[in-house]
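Me: I hope this is not a bother. Any chance you could explain this protein sequence and its structure tokens? It all follows right here:
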Amino acid sequence: MLVVNDLTLAYGTEPVIKQVSFSIPKGQFAAVLGPNGSGKSTLLRALCRLHRPQTGTIRLIGRELANFGQQELARQIAFVRQSSSVAFDFTIEELVMLGRLPYLRRFQAETSHDYAVVEHYMRLTGLWNMRKRYLYSLSGGEQQRVFVCQALVQEPSLLLLDEPTNHLDINHQLELLDLVATLNHEQGITVIAVLHDLNLAALYAERLLVLEQGCLVADGPPGQVLQAGLVKQVYGCPVSVIVHPVIERPQVLLVPRTSEETATLPEGELLS
């Protein structure tokens, strides 16, 4: 689906991503992790051609990313930014319909098929009954759903999400990632999401890619990647890693540096 080979990205002369290589098969849900400044968002921007590589190649379904036309690429890749905004206060339906632009010729009106696609995804994301409301009348979590829905009506084969749960409460975080996981499982949409929350990443993604100072330092399933030693190395803080009692995925417990009692918590111990 996506092959990244020896990718280096820079701002000016300063490399942000350094000789990173990986491949993502069709239908996989992968999460990109790493501390602030490690290059996560820059990498995602390069994957949708918003940042030009200094060296290396990115291939999508066997073709160089640079060889796609803009409309053609927008039918393959949808990108939801870390924080999205619009200059005018559109209705939700109007804003979501903008996701159909890659399928329209210049000055072409939307077709009945476009309206059907929009209705389908608005119902799927729970937005249909509020379609006539304006974007800025919604909560932050609802607004984020609108932008995800707009990306989905592009009918992409690859969905890129840059910190989609940022500023959301825990219920809205779960709602959003449940939706993405459902689309991944049922419709085979390939997902690459930048996430700050290691535990959410472990719960939803089947593969974790960890960046440290622009280098890919770990790549694999959550149980293999989320080890206490690696987390401490990358993030610089002591942790304990336990197994989730319900779904048996690793979960990271923070260990306060000021607490002598918790500082000796052994890895793998479940707290009651």
In short: The domain at 2-226 is CATH 3.40.50.300 (Rossmann fold). The mean pLDDT is 88.
